[in-house]
Specification:
Elements: H1 2-20, H2 30-38, H3 40-68, H4 72-97, H5 106-131, H6 137-158, H7 162-187
Amino acid sequence: MPLVCAAVNAAAALALATVLAPGVSLSPSAGGAAYVADHLAAWRAGWTLWIAAALSLLAFFAWWAARLGWSKVSRLAVALAVAGVIFDVAAEARLIGWSPEQPFDVGSALRQSGVAANGLYSVAGLLLVSRTRGLSPALAVWSWAVWLAGIALAVAAAASNDDASRLFTAVLFALFVPWLVVFGRRLA
C-alpha cells in the first residue's frame, strides 16, 4: 500500500506542477480561467488524479492503523482521514466540473482542499506517528516533518497565500513521497 500511495501521489504532484499549475491560484484569476478553458481535458484528468491520490492516502492510513492495532487513536486518525477525503473529493469534483460558462472560483475549492483536507490528513498523520514505536531518530524526525509540512500548507492556504502554499506543497511532497517508501518498508 505505501508504494501505491507513493506512486499515485508522485503522479498527482507532477500533474500539479505541470498541467494544473497555470490555472491554480487562491485568488481569482482571469488568466487562470482562460488557461483552464483551453486545457479542460487535462485539467479534469489532473484533478481526477488528485482524487485517486486522496483515496490512496486513505488506504495508506488504514494500512498503517491496522499495523498499530485499532486503538481509539488509530480509529480517530482514520476517521479524520475519511473526513479529509470527503472535503478533498468535494473540492476536486468542483474543479473537475467547472466549465468556461461558469464564474471561475478555483480559490475556494483550493482552500477547501488545502485547509480542511490537508489539515485533517496532517492531524491524522501526527496521531499515527505519535503511536508508532521503534522508529529510528532520523525516521521519527522525518515523519513529524512530513505532517508538520502539511499543517504549514493548511495554514498557508487558510491565509490565501499562493507563494507559501506553493512552497509548502513542494516541501510536503518532496518529503512525503520518499517517506512513504522508507516508512512503508519499516512498517511492513
